[in-house]
Structures are given as C-alpha cells and as structure tokens.
Amino acid sequence: MSSNNSLDRGHRYGKEVQFISKRGADRFVLTSKHLTSLEEDEEQGEEGETVMPVVPQIAAPKIPEGERVDFDDIHRKRMEKDLLELQTLIDVHFEQRKREEEELIGLKERIERRRAERAEQQRVRAEKERDRQTRLAAERQRKEDEEAKKRAEDEAKKKKVLSNMGAHFGGFLAKVEQRRGKRQTGREIKKMTLAERRKPLAVENLREDGLREKAKELWEWIYELESEKFDLTEKMKRQKYEVRTTGHGKGKVGGRWK
C-alpha cells in the first residue's frame, strides 16, 4: 500500500521516488515516466489477473541510503580522466619526439664533425705526399747533377791525359808512320807483282771446249808458278847457307875467335 501511495505521489508531483521490491532488498530510483508505465500495468492487472512488475536483477551501486546517483558528475569525471590520460599520452609523445629530434640533431652534428675531420686528414695526407714528392725530386736532381759533374771531370781528365800523351808520343807516331810506309811499300810491290801475274779468266762466253782449253792453260801456268817458287826457295836457302858460312869464316882466325 505504501508503494502505491509512493507511486501516486511520484506521478502527481513528477518527482523521483524510491521503489522497494517485495523482497525489500533492492532500491531503485524511478521517474514519473516509469511510474506511468507501472500504473498502466496495474490497471490492466485489475481488469484481469494481478500482474507483478518484473524487475531485472541488476546490482545497484553501493551508495548511502537516501542519496541520488549523479550520472553527469560521473560522466564528467570520466571525461576528465580520459582527457588527462590523453594529455599525458600527448605529452609523452611530444617528449619522445623531442628526444628523437635531439638525437637526430646530435647524429647530424657527429656526421658533420667526422666529415670535417676526414677532410682535414686528407688535406694533411696530401700535403705530406706533396712534400715527399718534392724531396724525392730534389734528391733525384741532386744525384743527376753530381753524376753529370763527375762525367765532365772524367772527360776533362781524359782529354788532359791524351794531350800530354800527344806531346810525348808525336815522335813515336811519326816513326811508326814511317815504318808503316815502308811496309806498305813492300806490300804494294807484292800487290803489283801479283796483279801483273794474275790474269783475268774471262770464261763467261766460253763453251765446253773453250773451258777445257782454259783449264789446261791455267794448270800449265800454275805449274810454272810452282816451279819458280821452288827455284826461288832453293836459291834463298843457298844464300842463307853461304851467309852463315861466310860469317863463321870471317870471325874465326887460326882456330880462335877475334
């Protein structure tokens, strides 16, 4: 009965009321809309059978008795919590991005510094290589100059020695030339004699009979030359013997040598 009175008051004043089930354990906050729906169900039950409202078994929030649940406040607090978490995530993201940008800047600086160091090392290495090449060229030029100077000194010494030898060797060379002239004269006489005795063959246009006759003539001539050579050789031997014999006879008188 008390529940019906509460429903009437709630429906009349349009306020929220507490509905207590028959079990007396659950309390629900009902609005005027819910109350109107309940009244319609009761009217239908009076015409027929009495139908008790079926309330779903929902665990109610544990709040003090007599107080209302402010869903707007809960929603606001949940939104504030979500916004706070989102802001925290945004801050963490930007902080991470800031650190990554700082690391990227540091990496670029290290790369530029390393590039500058390599350029400096290459410059120093190139300068050292130029200095080394310059020293090698100077050393090579110095050695070439020393060798040229030494060759010039050797040539000067040779010329000096030859000039001194020429001054003292002139008479000897003149004597050698005179002797060579005499020998050449004897050789010339021999050549002239051989040229007189040597006859041209002239066998280009001869036939077989002519060649045979020419060969016979040459053989006779060779025989004559060999005979003269033999006679001259024997004559030379006799002369040498007479010279030796005459020399021994003049040098020895009475069985003694002068």
UniProtKB/TrEMBL annotation:
Residues 38-49 have a biased composition (Acidic residues). Residues 110-157 have a biased composition (Basic and acidic residues). The keyword Cytoplasm does not apply. Pfam families: Troponin. The keyword Transmembrane helix does not apply. Belongs to the troponin T family. Interacts with TPM3. This is Troponin T, slow skeletal muscle. It comes from Oryzias latipes (Japanese rice fish). The gene is TNNT1.
